[in-house]
Amino acid sequence: MYILECSDSSYYTGSTNNLELRLLQHQNGEGANHTKKHLPVKLIYFEEFQRIDDAFNREKQVQGWNRKKKEALIKGEFGMLPELSKNYTQYSHTVASTSSATGKPLPLPEPLPLPEPVEGNTSINSP
After folding, report:
1. Are 29 and 36 in contact (CB under 8 A)?
2. Which end of the chain, N or C, is less packed with Cβ atoms under 10 Å?
3. pLDDT tens digit string along 99-112?
4. What is the pTM (predicted TM-score) of this model?
């Protein structure tokens, strides 16, 4: 699984069983449409897997992340990943409401409790 930085500073996440060849393809405009339109690209992060399907699953996971979370991964700030996985309802600070007549910040709702594990399914997805 790899992450490229494109000329427009966007990120492209992919997976391959031959990183050197795939990077060359991207650089030659033979890769994905996104990288083709935003050349040159540079490799800024990669992870190795024994099985391509594991790499593909990791690719899909990282593709769903926001930019800040991808940047934490790229920088090796693994401790930040759980915090960056939270949605806005899980933060404990307050935010100003755009519809508040008083202009005072409104507290966010308490986060929902986690579901109970289903028998036979004890795996926990990593962030």
Report:
1. yes
2. C
3. 444 455 555 556 55
4. 0.68
